[in-house]
């Protein structure tokens, strides 16, 4: 990559959301702003190698995009033969040329952009894609690749979300203090949805899509800079970092899934573990915090128990079970009960684990994880016939290629 | 922005309500109306008769078939609406949240149909 290309890639990665929000604050034209910014980047790819990288690359892109929006508005006005309908906020008019010094106002605009993209009136899957596009500047082609859908499908999804914003009147605004915490919870949910889509692909060939998870983490970091003491964001970032730190150990050389006890702990990212553990000590998490924030924190504590143990045997499984009891008190989901049963089995033996998951079948009728866990516990309890049929149920239900291959291998090993 | 707030509720709720409950409904509607008046404008509103008393006109080829009842059978039924002008969707959602908790609300922005002019 040339110097110019690298500079452009960096400014797109670091400044896209700020540029988008600044332009939206001036023009309130979502349809024009994003195209204009994309055009400006396109122009930069030919101009910068010829003229050199400008002193302030972000300001250069802002000026180029701004001209482009104005051109389009003038063209529309000519077509309609009336005065330009410039929707400008008086408060922003004076800062139109002040990009070189991004002050509080610009940061506030960025928060507006995030809240607009993650508005609860938008479909959550489309909202997370839109946030990647408008806040992080990820290209539509890359977003499609990250979410494993064809590019035209993703383009249509983004177009629909933008149309909904304009037609329904979703505001480019920070809501009042009584509503802001619940809106930041939606931001967290949106980011976590993208993150888990990266870590638990329900189908397809890959065990994990770590690039999507990394983008979700980047989104949370952007918002956390703007609202550093928000418990739901602190707890979520801790959880994401602790889970993400194990990414390189989760897949073997053949692309197969490696379960926690068998992972090479030296390949875990220690800096991310340290940051996650430190976040859990934050002052913002002391005292009463909202339920959703608490649920992220408890899950992060579970991940921290694993991340800081030197081996699976060394893990304090009793404390993990306690954390799961806390989690079930906050959010009694069937998948949390299943995970608790796994921890119970480690703490008190396979039969105790089997007992703990005995009544879960009705709640997880299509899950492949439930029979997979049952099979592994039955195997450890020495009930090989029952384990074999449980593996078969899991194999039938599993949509992920790597996980299914792992289950087949385990079932075949019973006969070996 | 102009919004129509569609109100859906279980049919019979109103008939079953005692006087105190009915007063709560009235209070909630008054709170909604005051909120809208402070931030925008009310254009119109109406309560509708139960959906099982509706009349449907369906176009079947060249014939028009008139039948008793609503065009969709749902457990929740459209029972009224407000037509309001408010700055944005967040304000419309905040207003809708003031209405009685028994309601489900659907908020639709009013859009212009290109090329159509009323006579």
TrEMBL record, chain A:
Keywords annotated in UniProt: Sigma factor, Transcription, Transcription regulation
UniProt key word Transcription: yes
Residue stretches making up the DUF6596 domain: 183-283
GO BP terms: DNA-templated transcription initiation
UniProt cross-references to Pfam families, sorted A to Z: DUF6596, Sigma70_r4_2
PANTHER family, sorted: BLL6612 PROTEIN, BLL6612 PROTEIN-RELATED
Similarity comment: family membership: Belongs to the sigma-70 factor family. ECF subfamily.
Protein name: ECF subfamily RNA polymerase sigma-24 subunit
Organism: Luteipulveratus halotolerans
Taxonomic classification: Bacteria, Bacillati, Actinomycetota, Actinomycetes, Micrococcales
UniProtKB/TrEMBL annotation, chain B:
Superkingdom field: Bacteria
Residues annotated as domain YCII-related: 1-103
Pfam short name (any one): YCII
InterPro entries: Dimeric_a/b-barrel, YCII
Family indicated by similarity: Belongs to the YciI family.
Identification of the protein by name: YCII-related domain-containing protein
């Amino acid at each position: 990559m040339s110097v110019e290309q690298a500079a452009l890639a960096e400014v797109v990665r670091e400044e896209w959301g700020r540029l988008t929000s600044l332009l939206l604050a001036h023009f309130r034209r979502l349809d024009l702003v994003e195209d204009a910014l994309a055009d400006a980047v396109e122009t930069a790819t030919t101009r910068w190698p010829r003229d050199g990288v400008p002193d302030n690359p972000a300001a250069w892109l802002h000026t180029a995009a701004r001209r482009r929006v104005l051109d389009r508005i003038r063209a529309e006005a000519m077509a309609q033969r009336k005065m330009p309908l410039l929707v400008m906020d008086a408060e922003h008019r004076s800062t139109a040329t002040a990009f070189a010094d991004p002050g509080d106002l610009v940061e506030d605009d960025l928060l507006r952009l995030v809240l607009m993209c993650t508005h609860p009136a938008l479909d959550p899957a489309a909202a997370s894609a839109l946030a990647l596009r408008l806040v992080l500047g990820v290209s539509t082609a890359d977003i499609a690749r990250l979410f494993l859908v064809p590019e035209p499908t993703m383009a249509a999804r983004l177009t629909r979300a933008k149309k909904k914003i304009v037609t329904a009147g979703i505001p480019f605004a920070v809501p009042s203090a009584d509503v802001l915490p619940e809106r930041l919870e939606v931001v967290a949910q949106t980011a976590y949805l993208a993150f888990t889509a990266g870590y638990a692909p329900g189908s397809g060939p890959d065990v994990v899509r770590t690039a999507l998870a990394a983008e979700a983490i980047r989104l949370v970091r952007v918002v956390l800079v703007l609202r550093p003491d928000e418990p739901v964001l602190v707890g979520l970032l801790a959880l994401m970092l602790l889970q993400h730190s194990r990414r390189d150990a989760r897949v073997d050389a053949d692309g197969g899934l490696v379960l926690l006890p068998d992972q090479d702990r030296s390949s875990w990212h220690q800096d991310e573990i340290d940051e996650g553990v430190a976040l859990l000590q934050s002052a913002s998490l002391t005292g009463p915090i909202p339920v959703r924030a608490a649920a992220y924190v408890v899950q992060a504590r579970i991940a921290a128990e694993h991340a800081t143990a030197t081996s699976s045997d060394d893990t304090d499984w009793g404390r993990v079970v306690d954390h799961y009891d806390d989690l079930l008190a906050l959010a009694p989901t069937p998948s949390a009960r299943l995970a608790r049963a796994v921890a119970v089995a480690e703490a008190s033996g396979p039969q105790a684990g089997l007992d703990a998951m005995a009544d879960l079948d009705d709640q997880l009728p299509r899950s492949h994880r439930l029979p997979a866990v049952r099979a592994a516990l039955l195997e450890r309890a020495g009930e090989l016939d029952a384990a074999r049929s449980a593996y078969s149920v899991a194999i039938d239900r599993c949509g992920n290629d790597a996980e299914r291959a792992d289950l087949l291998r385990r079932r075949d090993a019973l006969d070996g | 922005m102009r919004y129509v707030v569609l109100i859906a509720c279980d049919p019979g709720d109103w008939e079953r309500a005692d006087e105190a409950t009915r007063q709560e409904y009235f209070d909630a509607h008054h709170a909604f109306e005051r909120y809208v008046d402070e931030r925008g404008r009310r254009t119109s509103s109406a309560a509708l008769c139960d959906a099982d008393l509706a009349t449907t006109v369906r176009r079947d080829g060249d014939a028009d078939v008139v039948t008793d009842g609503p065009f969709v059978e749902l457990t929740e039924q459209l029972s009224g609406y407000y037509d309001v002008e408010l700055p944005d969707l967040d304000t419309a959602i905040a207003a809708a949240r003031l209405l009685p908790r028994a309601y489900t609300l659907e908020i639709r922005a009013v859009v212009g149909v290109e090329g159509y002019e009323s006579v």
